[in-house]
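>> Question from a student workshop board

For tomorrow's exercise we were told to take the sequence and the ligand below, predict the bound structure, and bring the output to class. My setup keeps failing. Could a helper post the expected result so I can at least see what it should look like? The ligand is NQM.
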Amino acid sequence: MVPTTLRAAREADPRHLGSQAAVPCWFMRGGTSKGPFFRAHDLPRDVDARDAILLASMGSPDPRQIDGVGGAHPLTSKAGIVAVSHRDGVDLEFLFAQLQPGNSTVDTSANCGNMLAAVVPFAIEAGLLVPADDTTTARVLTLNTGVTAEISISTPSSGESRYVEYGGDTRIDGVPGTSASVVINFLDTAGSVCTSLLPTGNLRDTVEIEGFGSVDVTCIDNGQPLVIIDAIELERTGREPVVELETDTALKERLEALRLDCGKIMGLGDVSGKNYPKMTLVSAPASGGAIGTRSFIPHACHESIGVLAAVTVATAAVLPGTVAHAVAALPAGAKPAVSVEHPSGEFTVQLELDPADPTRVTKSALLRTARLIMAGDVMVPSRLWHSPTESPKEQEK
Ligand code: NQM
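>> Workshop helper replied:
Here is what the output should look like for this input. Compare the format with yours to find the bug.
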């Protein structure tokens, strides 16, 4: 029989649809990022074969990603892969893939709290999770780093069935309009990629930048490995607009030299090909928040700030002795709501401190929003399905 639609053709034989193969895909916005989400069983198990499909889907390594769904910026060059978990106390497993416009790397070694915000809505849309109540809460394990988060979204009923409600009145800076909230409670973020919260063992280190002089930094990882620098030390205010920082090559060169050195002292080795540590300039707050930031991820300047980057900056801000603490204006109490200012507004992180040791953060919670933008198939070259055992159909068996 001759298949009449792409989907029917894919079901007949997922590997051969002329020169194209159809891979089921849900395109989601998660916080201030967006990208295609896949069910793990729709992709090859083999990592190289999987990565080839991710690269082709996004259109990388073309810098404009013109032949794929990527948005030609690191924040819109991300993908999510989700599976039902069989581990105790975990509902879903999320693998985050950072692709880059302009190169062929598929980095699955770091977290992305923004894409994480889309995981539970995606899982319901894609039939991996059944909503049971007006609020659905799921425990999501990020496979990249082993970080677990409890995530709650709104799932009202319409007659017999429940659906994901995307509409609501939560506003996050960096996204137009308002949406339903996605509540994320991170349970164990310290040392996500590094071996500990303070991977150098210090609250502050002094690092030499060749031809520039020495600079004080805080190297920290509470979900995202960051190097935090007081902007004044690099002769900037930390309040410059993103467009100005994007063209500030002198600053970018210094930041990269510092990043390569800090990668070594953080135990990350040669980070020249890695997208971490991210470089964060901090300053005294300018708009009533707790701390000002300009975040480099690690080369492009973020229009706002990453979720776990915000958690990590907020954590540094509450630790006396860090570079961040020195410029921060903090609210009092054991559950401080730390407002992290960024170029397009602010990001509030609700921290919980250990009453016995107020320098230990036990929990971090925050609000994001997410939205299903498109559901269908992403088309990739059929030659990318290497062998019959790697076809999606085979894996579903
Ligand atoms: O830090 C950007 C983003 C991120 C990552 C980046 C993120 C996080 O805004 O958890 O969300 O740091 O590359 O999506």
